[in-house]
TrEMBL record, chains A, B:
GO molecular function, one term: enoyl-[acyl-carrier-protein] reductase (NADPH) activity
Official protein name in the record: Enoyl-[acyl-carrier-protein] reductase, mitochondrial
GO biological process: fatty acid biosynthetic process
Family the UniProt entry places it in: Belongs to the zinc-containing alcohol dehydrogenase family. Quinone oxidoreductase subfamily.
Keywords assigned by UniProt, alphabetized: Acetylation, Fatty acid biosynthesis, Fatty acid metabolism, Lipid biosynthesis, Lipid metabolism, Mitochondrion, NADP, Oxidoreductase, Transit peptide
Organism of origin: Anser brachyrhynchus
Length: 337, 337
């Protein structure tokens, strides 16, 4: 069968999405510890775009197939493969796998099994955003039911996962979004996911915030994917000794913090990058599996769904790339392979 | 004997140093758990000025005697006082004591004993700056001999204590100072204290930094008392997963951090305030005493001296206040009481 892959052939990635080409690829021979995978679906994430633009912290040597997330079905395994068999669903264990292709041969160690009884779009979008949300809610502050979290970019893939995971554990969320034409619809959608409060950035400096804090405590955790002024505003609402975790910078502006917040409110600023976490836990398979188990459990219980997705055949990848880069996009582009 | 105190009578402190008056004060009766103290010496610190200006995070109810640090000798103790006796040297256990006076009656709990065999100016300047330096070097990163620390405002009271304490424990220091007319003299003085490298702010973005890191490792800890652009520059040299602790903001500008430093270098930003530490450890006398013991031990061994001081009789407090607020002041004003 034909094997197609979308990626960059080089020499520079700076040309951005226009430099992505669809090509016929050879499927290499199956090695001793290799797994032949039929890819099923793979999303287009902001980090994929940044890698293509050459602005990401890790870049693949060219030529490279793009795409860091997705799900595939095992077609065949090498004789040394122990934990996977034909028919299993697999997702990337790490960034850089190159998921935008119809078939591939991967080393077993580069794959993680996921149950095949969860929805395809959930499996395809599980390894980056829900994992990021899960870790940020777990690793920085020990949150108890009744505690609250504030986050910006609440409509992003991570943001939607944060809302759902927090809701499932009894943690309240204050969700900051940019003002937009269809705001009421977005508010409704995030509340349907379990958001307690959805506000626009300008509300962060208004008395309405006081109303919110009459019914829920000030957040001990703030999750920042924006930067610039609105992040500084969000930080003002953090509890003393609370932590703000930065995992993205959509506004392309730095994080600016008044000195007094450090000294007199003892706020703690950290960063999070799922790729680094996976690197740091490469020899701690246990924490990776227990996280995946917990997330799949939430999926099965209907407490964690896939983000709003638009599915697109691989052949139409170029339109999907353009659509993924539109401002205020509320739907993730997912390539069907 | 006459009892004089310098402080503010109100109603507002915003008038700044001009609002400080020298007044004859009554010495109250010695209560059951009180200690009558003859104050000996008290420095003028930036936090004292900020309190007088009404811009500090804690302000005394007016009228109030100013001064948060100093040393006194016990003249008499109340019948319920257990740990202090006549002749002992004492320093404030906490901020807000009002040390700019000749005599006072304080509750025993508000005082800490220090050995009377250390130099007067060391004792008078021990409870804020050396404690701040000690805690910042201990509480955020576990530094081993050979590790390095970078700090700005290296010429401040805290900065000089950092240099000496780090030197005594085998930790190397990179010390950032503002350029000034008598720079070579300052460099020489800080090196005499044990500084490994003394550089001006503009060097932070020059290739000379690479030379420094040929002989010592990148710092795991950065201590920030400035804010603004030079703090961002300093942060660039921190090791991945290193911590920057902000304890002051001399530039009156916020701390600005590129999003990538959080995500891809996992830098951690914290704050420190000695007053808060003391509050948090109010029921943990042990950690306070062990810190004071360690500091006095360094003093006795000649490894920790008082900062450069200019001693001034209490009557001349107004000139001392003005002198303490000059830019590039390299000498701490200490009132002799």
């Amino acid at each position: 069968s034909q094997n197609l892959g979308a990626g960059c052939s080089g020499p520079g990635m700076n040309a951005g999405p226009k430099s992505v080409l669809l090509k016929e690829l050879e499927v290499p021979r199956l090695g001793h510890s290799d797994v032949h995978v039929k890819m099923l679906a793979a999303p287009i994430n902001p980090a994929d775009i940044n890698m293509i633009q050459g602005t990401y912290a890790i870049l693949a040597p060219l030529p490279a197939v793009a795409g860091n997330e997705g799900v595939g079905r095992v077609l065949e395994v090498g004789p040394g493969v122990t934990a996977l068999r034909r028919g299993d669903w697999v997702i990337p264990a790490d960034a850089g796998l190159g998921t935008w292709r119809t078939q591939a041969v991967f080393p077993e160690a580069s794959l993680l099994q996921v149950p095949s009884d969860i929805p395809l779009l959930c499996a395809a979008t599980l390894s980056v955003n829900p994992c990021t949300a899960y870790r940020m809610l777990s690793d920085f502050e020990s949150l108890a039911p009744g505690d609250s979290v504030i986050q910006n970019a609440a409509n992003s893939g991570v943001g939607q996962a944060v809302i759902q995971i927090a809701k499932a554990t009894g943690v309240r969320t204050i969700n900051v979004v940019r003002d937009r034409p269809d705001l009421p619809k977005l508010v409704e959608r995030l509340k349907a996911l379990g958001a307690d409060h959805v506000i626009t950035e300008d509300v962060l400096r208004k008395p309405e915030m006081k109303e919110i804090f009459k019914s829920i405590p000030k957040p001990r955790l703030a999750l920042n994917c924006v930067g610039g002024k609105s992040t500084t505003e969000m930080l003002r609402h953090l509890q003393p000794k609370g932590t703000m975790v930065t995992y993205g910078g959509m506004a392309k502006q730095p994080v600016t913090v008044p000195v007094s917040a450090f000294i007199f409110r003892d706020v703690r600023l950290r960063g999070f990058w799922m790729t680094q976490w996976k690197k740091d836990h490469a020899h701690d398979k246990e924490s990776l599996t227990s996280m995946m188990d917990a997330l799949c459990q939430l999926v099965r219980r209907g407490q964690l769904g896939a983000p709003a997705c638009t599915t697109v055949p691989l052949e139409d990848f170029r339109e999907a790339l353009v659509a993924s880069m539109q401002p205020f996009t509320s739907s993730k582009q997912v390539l069907l392979l």
